[in-house]
Sequence to fold (294 residues):
Amino acid sequence: MASVPPPSAQGAGNSARLLMSCPDGPGIVAAVSGFLFGRGANIIASDQFSTHPERGTFFMRTVFFLPELERGREEFESAFEALAKRFSMTWRISYPHRRRRVALMASTADHCLLDVLWRNRRGELDMETVCVISNHERLRDEVEALGVPYLYLPVTRETKREAEQRAVEVLAGEVDLVVLARYMQILSAEFLAQVGCPVVNIHHSFLPAFAGAQPYRHAYERGVKLIGATAHFVTEDLDEGPIIEQDVQRVGHDYTVEDLERVGRDLERVVLARALRSVLDDRVLVHEGRTIVF
Fold:
């Protein structure tokens, strides 16, 4: 699918993003900035956070520009490894011009799926959409009209394992991220282990929680006052993965079930888009089951 590269991705061959975490202590920022300065890099943006000033974990995201970086990345990363070992860092460097390869999974609801595809086409989400996988045929025409391959993998109780294995064969090693855009199937621990990349999910958020079918009907019957949405990383513990983004909207006693569903769809679209943008921009680090989002 053709899309417009965002301004941040244009001419980005010599730009990079460094994300790191390590035990907190004095001198980390000075060491990183000194390393970059010594190699002629210009720091464009830098954010940091510590869980505790004396015994915490330190996190940092630094965006920098370095002339000739495109031709010397391996040497640059090898040199940084020595600094990383000194501070026991967990780190990675990403390059904005390398667009993430993303697969979308959906069922019958189209609002999140089509919104992500539209934002990608507009250049609002800096990614390459590899394919859409669905357990229904319903959305094929709309997806293929946007130039995106559509793979139909029906799922029943008897065929679930086979369908997941087929999805793994298509995705493993080929994509950097999988997005569940209202995919109404629970992914197994085996799938998550084999797919080899993060998986992001979007779902409604209610208090109290309404599990199962017709959550908006149950919310209406209980007279909820807030409708929300949550985007999170997927783990084998259902809906308990690290939270990336959330939002809520107040609703009134005069809202119908249809009104609640409309509000929920709007929130799900926006929250998923925000979460994807944070992940694609390398703003998210996971620590002990929660996220630091710069």
Notes: The first strand starts at residue 15 and ends at 23. Confidence is low (pLDDT under 50) at residues 6-11. The longest helix spans residues 257-280. Residues 100-293 form a domain with the Rossmann fold fold (CATH 3.40.50.170).
